[in-house]
Design goal:
Blueprint lengths: L1 E10 L12 E10 L2 E5 L8 E7 L5 E5 L2 E3 L4 E4 L6 E8 L5 E8 L13 E4 L2 E4 L8 E4 L7 E4 L3 E8 L5 E11 L8 E2 L22 E5 L5 E5 L14 E8 L10 E7 L3
Parallel strand pairs: 10-15, 16-20
Antiparallel strand pairs: 1-2, 3-4, 4-7, 5-6, 5-8, 8-9, 11-13, 12-14, 14-15, 17-18, 17-19, 19-20
Length: about 270
């Protein structure tokens, strides 16, 4: 509320000769204004809704916030990285005096989970993930606290985190399982009809560190790619039989290599 205080001030004038005039008493009206700001949030986790309330008898309230200005009281909003920090309250009394209050709206950080982009695995591979060693709690929606997850079929893996303040977050990995024991094709017909135009290796989608080499019958290298992205259509080479070397892990050792003949028929 506003309380008006009348403060007397005595004024005495002195001329250039040092002579003082009679004194006069002037009463100055001043006000004592009670203003308070209240934070009303159940917690300070991202995504939590609540409000700021100004305790004032004034009808004129202005909030200056990170997301713009508002005359609403209470001021409702949802906590986020943008909707936090310093908020400034301006209000005025009946005499036109302005009063300012500052409110700091906190935000409890939630770890930024980044497990993997959507990934292709060989069927029955084991996906290993080590939980961060910090004060937060981590768990998989389906596999709980397991650090090794079998990828036997296509599935959605959801990793959750809970902070000591009860804030939650999650990240999702779509794991695709493919049969990596399939035999490689032995013929391509790059004639533009959309059928067998490219040398397709299904495993290449999951073996992102692979290497493919194509050589001719005289041992000359005709093509090489690391990784191979299933985009070789013969490069307009002559029809004939060629030899391929496919390294699933990009390691040029026989134990990690698949090889065979590929027939190219463009015409």
């Amino acid at each position: 509320m506003t309380k008006t205080v009348y403060t007397p001030i005595t004024v005495t004038a002195t001329d250039q000769y040092g002579c003082a005039t009679e004194s006069a008493v002037v009463f100055v009206n001043t006000s004592v204004y009670n203003l308070a700001s209240n934070l009303n949030f159940p917690n300070y986790c991202p995504g939590t809704s609540g409000n700021l309330t100004a305790t004032t008898i004034s009808d004129s309230v202005l909030w200056i916030t990170p997301f713009g200005n508002s005359h609403n009281n209470p001021l409702n909003f949802t906590l986020s990285q943008q909707n936090s920090g310093n908020f400034y309250l301006h209000t005025w009394d009946d005499m036109g005096c302005m009063y300012v209050d500052t409110v700091v709206v906190p935000l409890t950080p939630v770890p930024n989970l980044d497990i993997l982009p959507d990934t292709v695995f060989c069927a029955n591979d084991i996906y290993t993930f080590y939980f961060p060693n910090d004060q937060n709690t981590y768990y998989w929606t389906t596999y709980g606290n397991s650090i090794q997850i079998p990828v036997a079929f296509d599935q959605e893996l959801i990793l959750n985190v809970v902070t000591p303040d009860g804030c939650v977050g999650s990240d999702t990995l779509m794991a695709h399982a493919v049969d990596c024991d399939d035999a490689l094709p032995n013929i391509i017909t790059p004639n533009g009809d959309g059928i067998n135009d490219y040398f397709i290796i299904d495993d290449a989608y999951s073996q992102l560190g692979n290497t493919l080499i194509i050589i001719n019958r005289w041992g000359n290298k005709m093509f090489e790619a690391s990784p191979y992205k299933n985009d070789w259509d013969g490069d307009k080479i002559s029809d004939g039989v060629y030899f391929y070397l496919y390294y699933p892990k990009g390691i040029k050792e026989p134990s990690y290599m698949k090889h065979g003949f590929i027939h190219v028929f463009a015409n």
